[in-house]
Amino acid sequence: MSFTSFFDHTVNGLIIGNIYALLAVGLALIFGVSQLINFAHGSVYTVGAYIGWASITYLHTPLPITIALVVLGSGALGMLIERVGLRPLQGAARIAPLLATIGISFVLDILVQLVFSPDPRALPTQLPEWRLQIGTGTIGALDLLIAGIGITSAAVLFGFLRFTKLGWAVRATAQDRDAAQQMGVDVNRVNQTVFAIAAALGGLSGLLVGMYYNNISPAMSFQATLKGVVATVVGGVGNVPGAIVGSLLLGLIESYGVAILGTPYRNLFAFALLLVILVWKPNGLFGRKRVLPPEPLTGTFIAPSKPWRVPPRVLLALFAAAVLLPLFNPSPYVLQTLTNAWLYGALALSLTLVAGTIGQISLGHAGLLAIGAYASSLLVLDLHLSVGTGIVVAGVLTSLIGTALIFPAFRLRGHYVSIATLGIGEIVALTILNWESLTRGPIGVSGIPPLSLFGRDASSNEAIYWASFGALVLLALLQWRLLRSHLGRTFRAVREDEVAARAYGVSPDRYKALAFGFGGFAAGVSGAFTAHMYSYINHETFGSQISILALTMVILGGLGNISGALLGAVALVSLPELFRVTAEYRMLIYGVALLLLIRFRPQGLLGTV
Amino acid sequence: MPPLFTRHRFLRHAVALSAALLAAPLAAWAATASGEPVWFGVSGPLTGQNAQYGAQWKAGFDLAIDHINAQGGIHGRPLAYNFEDSQSDPRQSVAIAQKLVNDKRVLIELGDFSSPASMAASPIYQRAGLVQLGFTNSHPDFTKGGDYIWSPSISQADAQPLLADLAVKTLGFKRIAVLFLNTDWGRTSKDVLVKAAQERGAQLAIAEGYQPDEKDFRSTLVRVRDTNPDGLVLISYYPDGALIAGQVRSVGLKQPIAAVGSVYSPKFIELGGAAVNGIHTNTAFYPDEPRAEVQAFVKTFRAKYSKEPDAFNAYAYDAVVYAAAALRQAGPKADRKAVRDAFYKIKDVPSVIFGKATFDAQTRRVIGVKSVNLVVKDGKWAQIDEKAAVASSK
């Protein structure tokens, strides 16, 4: 790399880092005050961009007015999200608001798409065209504006937090919510203010990034959330200056990563950085060195609730109905939908064990599906194993690889675990994309043989249905046995109070590894089945959206609850199918249904076990 | 424009197109189609990441159906379709496949959009014996799914050598930098292109694959700049192509750019602005091309939607035309197998993309592709040579 190129890569890294910073600051603020990773932040960013587009296109506003409208509009949206979506969930498990933000982001994205059409649009910059020559590269007015707004908003924010009364209240609330409330701070107002500020910043960044690329689309939110979260964690969640430094660092690392290894490695570098930082400094670069564990030391995410026990008689009846169903000649569509539900059910089992029973919220579970799917496909295609053996070996391999990958995250706590697993999921997908000699890269694996068991073809709808249901029931029974054993109680002890468990001589890491190992097997089997059913897979088949879907399933059913996980899987696979008649609106209805469920049953339909 | 005139114009062109496109003997006297419709099913994205392509499909389908039904439909029955939203998600496309397969009225299926979603559903269509016409599926293994799996998607083996001609022969690139969308389509296209360019005496300076959700290309472009190529080739769709074009000059790259035909869209210029001026492409679909099939399609499209058609509209339109040709060929009492057999028999179906489309019995893809060379000039697409190039069929 020549010096000029190094210089250009540095400038590029700083520019893109600046863009991440606009996103990360809002996320950091919200985390600081409400200990919540706001997955709706990317959607607010999209809404902001579209407010800007609409005001330029329809009202012909000059730039300052456009900015003002975007700030006001997104700020109001932020307040609305806090008031309607999150405040009613106070006192519910902390996972409930997290899931609510996922649901809100879902609804917002679809609304934007319905109102503005899914087509990407050009967002005029409204700025002079001049560019400043720096080295071999150039810097334009917009680059400077983005940097200017980044620095200004950071400064204003700093001033607000340091010198205003409301700012003090925000900081007090961030330090100790209960104490602040006892001292007379209106915690709700503080929360709402913070959401408004964060959303205004998020919307503004949407506008600026849209102008920067001259391109906005309703699909832009997920990637924005992902990068914003990584940048925030690198800096130390809840730490505003940390978020800015983290963003710049992320931008630089990505830029240098592209420079050294090439474009396909860009995100691999970003997520590897995330993991290294989490392992090296679990609280981020600028996080406080020693964070006291939350008081009292009970499980971070798990709400005290009384689970609804499903009577064994009902379970047996449902089981019999499910087994006998194909004999009554239902439509293949119903069978296929239920087959999908069984396969997702196995994934949900895996996740509910990890997230529910032992308290490690995983956002990267799709990665396990992918490992299982690739393992079985490649074993059968390249090593000529039989399909049945392939599936079992794939389960074992997923269990081993998955546990090994996740092992560094075991010393993390709470939200950090979810973010680390999110990164691991992305790393798995990117490794599959780039490890061409093994995985065939972007071309994917095609011609995967259909399901066969004991040498007999089992690719008919009924056979796949029964085979996947059988596997699911087997996994569920094993898990049920596990949870009722001494081991299961130890798992829950680790979840409820890791420090206390350690004091009793329990080594949490080993138990976490056991849980991930068992969960990995279930997910791997599910992925392998899916691969043989699809006959073609590539790195996109199991995207990060599936991880979020799986988490939604287990939270919806009730964390740690086996029947709950199965119910969640059946509900979330079949609901979008039920709403099929509503065409373009079906995902909106699905999103709203999800939000209502979280609102009225935050501990999950069947409750946490 | 008064509405009556528009309608009149529309009808006039509908009739002109009918004559040009579908010279079926029955069509001449059959007035309007009536009775129970002949159905085809569609599995494609109406929501989610790829929703824009589903919307473009719909416009193309509806236009083709207008024409076909105005002309008497399929053996006197109207043609109709059932569009199921898959979000281009394999989990949903397999469920949709079961639904369509079980709907006895459905005689052909069109879609899905992406390879993972389409190819996951292929075994179901193949087992049930329902033709899956994957008209955007250029994955090299797509039609290997079985004898019910067909694709009129442009074969990259045909299309990329034409792009190599443009880049190497017309524009004189000796050392080429390729930026490609890192998907099955982009990757396959890149491999064919690089080989074809090398056969024409050019060298590869660098090939960089990027992710579909990538927005920042500056670092990639600096890397490209460091290899000092004398021309860039983009294997992109229009949104990412426009993004790259917008950032190319900011890193000091001044080399000429050629791009694959998928960038052809009015949107490319809207999103790219001044930055796309001077970019060359060769496309199978160009609305100003004088061919009768193209002109009839474009005029009626403008009349119906008051906007410019783009390539995905044309693919969707053509797909329905092929489906209709096969349904006609199969006869009034056709079952699904007869429709499959009809695909082996239909010849020279008038096509916007191919001129005359005929499926190869071995590959189950359409042979050859017509393409014209274009350049963006003062914010408009302009043709740089008179005649369309035709890929030599193998």
Automatic annotation (TrEMBL), chain A:
This is ABC transporter permease. It is a multi-pass membrane protein. The lineage of its organism: Bacteria, Pseudomonadati, Pseudomonadota, Betaproteobacteria, Burkholderiales. CDD domains: TM_PBP1_LivH_like, TM_PBP1_LivM_like. Keywords: Cell membrane, Membrane, Transmembrane, Transmembrane helix. Its main location: membrane. It comes from Variovorax paradoxus. It is found in: Cell membrane. InterPro entries: ABC_transp_permease (IPR001851), LivM-like (IPR043428). One of its GO terms (molecular function) is branched-chain amino acid transmembrane transporter activity. Pfam families: BPD_transp_2 (PF02653).
UniProtKB/TrEMBL annotation, chain B:
This is ABC transporter substrate-binding protein. Keywords: Amino-acid transport, Signal, Transport. Residues 39-367 form the Leucine-binding protein domain. One of its GO terms (biological process) is amino acid transport. It holds the Pfam family Peripla_BP_6. It comes from the Bacteria. Residues 1-30 form the signal peptide. Belongs to the leucine-binding protein family.
